[in-house]
Design brief:
- There is one protein chain.
- Strands 2-1-3-4-5-11 form a six-stranded parallel beta sheet, sandwiched between helices. Strands 7-6-8-9 form a four-stranded parallel beta sheet, sandwiched between helices. It has a two-stranded antiparallel ribbon with strand order 10-12.
- It is about 50% helix and about 15% strand.
- The chain folds into two domains: about 60-170 and about 305-335 and about 355-374, 3-Layer(aba) Sandwich (Rossmann fold); about 170-305, Rossmann fold, CATH 3.40.50.2300.
- The protein has helices spanning about 1-55, 55-60, 75-95, 110-125, 140-150, 170-185, 205-215, 235-245, 260-270, 285-295, 310-320, 360-374, and strands at about 65-70, 100-105, 130, 150-155, 165-170, 190-195, 220-230, 255, 275, 300-305, 330, 335.
- It has twelve helices and twelve strands.
- The termini are far apart.
- Strand 3, helix 5 (about 140-150) and strand 4 form a beta-alpha-beta unit.
- Helix 3 packs parallel to helix 11 (about 310-320) and helix 4 packs parallel to helix 5 (about 140-150).
């Protein structure tokens, strides 16, 4: 009997030890499985982050392309920011290995200088040229020569009429129309206005003025008392306005394609009452407007093209080189700042314009794909 009890106790102890070790083993296996699952989750998260970071690189295969920018004019802040946006996008692409190199050439706003730029790019056998043109028509022959040599040509902002080039344009007439309509509403269709024009002979200057003149036909009591060539320069605009303002006893509004700050300075220098001045989206004008609004309730509108389009043109050229389907013509967005929105841009960096950042993804989704669907 004692032997039977002893044997039973030994058996129970053995079973207990086995169960204990088994449970311990299960817990270790569970812990190990959890650790593996966590490691796999971390690896997946890292892989996703790397995929996002490399999205543009994978979307655009690496190659040894060289892309040039032929900029007709470098004499104002807008063109400076445009060139900087092109260089920023190009440097990013170069760092990622998407292109071999890029080059920027700035002109003096003359056709001969830009023709020389284009011929230089042709001799260097670049793969693509982005052009902000001095003339809609005068560059057509050299553009067609470049295309015959196998060079992709993308004309943007100030575009060309050559069918050989891809076009990235703004609706310039809409800009002119929007300014006239705003002023007409504020003045109840009656008043004396000045038209301040942009770079002479450029497509934007021509288009905006055509939009203004066409819309002014609807308002016969809006009297154009002067047309001033400001060349998109605050200094130039101020000088030209100071010449004519003493002879103009009344000015109710100035429609500026650019150089709004120069316009403000001219009126202030003569101690004249500030009329409605349509803004140009510069930090200087935006900040002046915000302060004037606080102190006097000053009301206006600001509208301009976006200098970030330099980078948009670069990405379009690169997509064409990569054999992506790209439409022959795309319309860029004008950016309007209203009375209710102006404070949003109080922190805008001096010497810059309100403008979005044009990444490759943004350009594909907002310009290339929508235009291809039309």
């Amino acid at each position: 009997m004692k032997k039977s009890l002893l044997w039973l106790l030994i058996m129970l102890l053995t079973v207990s030890i086995v169960v204990t070790f088994s449970l311990a083993g299960c817990k270790k296996e569970e812990v190990a499985e959890e650790e593996v699952a966590e490691e796999e989750a971390v690896e997946e998260e890292v892989a996703e982050e790397e995929a996002v970071e490399e999205a543009e690189t994978t979307a655009l295969p690496k190659d040894d392309w060289v892309i040039g920018l032929s900029n007709s004019y470098y004499g104002n802040v807008w063109r400076h920011q445009m060139v900087e946006s092109f260089e920023s996008a190009a440097q990013m692409a170069k760092d990622q290995g998407l292109i071999k190199d890029f080059e920027v050439q700035n002109g003096d706003n003359t056709v001969p200088a830009q023709i020389a730029q284009l011929n230089s790019f042709i001799l260097k056998e670049v793969d693509a040229i982005c052009i902000n043109a001095a003339s809609p028509t005068a560059l057509n022959d050299v553009i067609e020569k470049a295309v015959e040599e196998g060079i992709v040509v993308v004309a943007f902002d100030s575009v060309v009429t050559s069918p050989a080039a891809y076009i990235m344009d703004y609706d310039w007439e809409l800009w002119g129309k929007a300014m006239v309509d705003y002023v007409a509403e504020r003045l109840n269709g009656q008043g004396d206005i000045i038209l301040l024009r942009g770079p002479s002979g450029s497509a934007p200057d021509i288009g905006v003025n055509e939009g203004e003149m066409r819309e002014l036909e609807k308002y016969p009591d809006l009297n154009v008392v002067a047309v001033v060539s400001g060349e998109a320069s605050d200094v130039k605009a101020q000088e030209e306005l100071l010449k004519i303002l003493p002879s103009l006893p009344n000015v109710d509004a100035v429609l500026t394609m650019a150089a709004a700050t120069g316009t403000v300075n001219a009126f202030e220098q003569l101690n004249r009452e500030i009329p409605i001045i349509i803004g140009d989206n510069t930090a200087e004008f935006i900040n002046w407007w915000i302060e004037k609004k606080k102190t006097t309730g000053y009301e206006t509108l600001s509208i301009c093209s976006t200098p970030g389009c330099g980078s948009a043109a670069f990405w379009v050229a690169l997509n064409i080189l990569k054999k992506v389907d790209v439409p022959e013509k795309m319309i860029l967005e004008l950016l309007t700042v209203t009375q209710d929105e102006v404070e949003q841009y109080a922190d805008l960096k001096a010497g810059t314009f309100v403008s979005p950042v044009f990444t490759n993804d943004y350009v594909v989704k907002h310009y290339i794909e929508p235009a291809m669907q039309k």
